[in-house]
Predict the structure.
Amino acid sequence: MLAVAGLTKRFPGVLALDDVSLALAAHEIHGLIGQNGAGKSTLINILSGMVRPDSGTINIDGAAVAIRDTRHALSLGVATVYQEFSLLPNLSVAENLALGREPKRRGLLDRATMRRDGIAVLDRLGLAIAPDRQVGALPLAERQMVEIAKALAIRPKVLILDEPTAPLGGREVEQLFAAVRSLRADGVAVLYVSHRFAEVLDLCDRATVLRNGRHVTTTTTLSGWSEARLTDTMLGVKSQRFAGKARLAGEALLVAEDLVWGDRVKGVTLAARRGEIIALTGLLGGGQAEVARLIGGDLQARGGSISLKGRRLMLRSPHSAVAAGICLVTDDRKDEGLLPNLPLRENIAIASLAARRNALGFVRREIEVRQVRAVAGEFGIVAASLEVPIRTLSGGNQQKALLARWHLADAEVFVLIEPTRGVDVGARAEIYRRLDGLAGAGKVVIVVSSDLPEVLALADRILVMRAGRIAADISPTSIDEQALNLILQGAERAA
């Protein structure tokens, strides 16, 4: 259904793709893996019409094509669901699904047909989302499912999914997998891009590995492959797994008591000690993300209190939380963390400008450069220079830059929601080490994660949330992934 041969693409100073070939059959789910910077995004952008290759050929359904732009790619039957959302938040679900293909009747927009078509494609994914709902009001997971529904609306021959499960909970992942397998049965060729190797092994028929812009291997099958083998093939060396160090937690630094926020948080109490990593986990909608946003000042509690070092805080905004020494890093780097067009230096420095102002109020540039260079090195950020726009960095380096920002600002409490979303396995282990280092330096680290191996690897203490309450307080040394998953599902804890 899709065959590319000899694809090469250069950008200034970078050979992004170097003679890459790949073939997808109808009735196949094909995994595409590689570290950030391996060439996956460039390959996706070429197939979706956003970028033109310097050389190489593309065949779709047996015919040679030169994809001119994104509209041309769609007309050829190639639909792409990107990691970053493309929906228009001010439009309804049905309007987004029909965008660019709006049905008309007598020259006017046919809203009845648009709504009916929208319901049909939502039903195909098993989604109980009202087609009239405004997209901006949907939770992150539902927006991702609408993105996928939008791609399905054109009835593609080739469907490209870029990290589709990153914002999804366990049930939504199962729902997505069922839909993807149904598409395979219908003859669609699916290119599945993911850093989550367990998903690749579970879902895909074969996989292609890229490294440094080059094709490394394409498996004939994934039978007999493991996550460790995929990781080692991707990295080209025997990978080093993250191993956290045993830490002794100090006194309680942050205490939240009886927090209430609508029907999502119902009387949550927790105490976080210096040098401790707490993981909040649960099924989607359990309230864990809302608790993190309450502590980070992004939501305002309807009841209860939050205290830091014994002093009760009035958190009316993220700004007030930052002033108290609490930082919030959400799962939406693009819209809620980064200033994408500003350089790496400014993105790291922005939260600590006051510390470098002179008597006249001007920032002392030479001190800023020296401090940012030091903290960027400490957090292992890889970039050509401090002045490159941060949007040009890989997801892992962007995330490390956010951690460096708040470390430079001397935050005492780090609250992170899905900290390794869209990050490759190499960068993920590096982020784990940085979080481990922050805890080792006496900081409080609170991580919201739906990735159970991540929770077990990182946490000193696991708080399982269910229906807005803390349902279990668990030591990771006393439980395995299977038992933890059972607790998330509501089962009694196994002996």
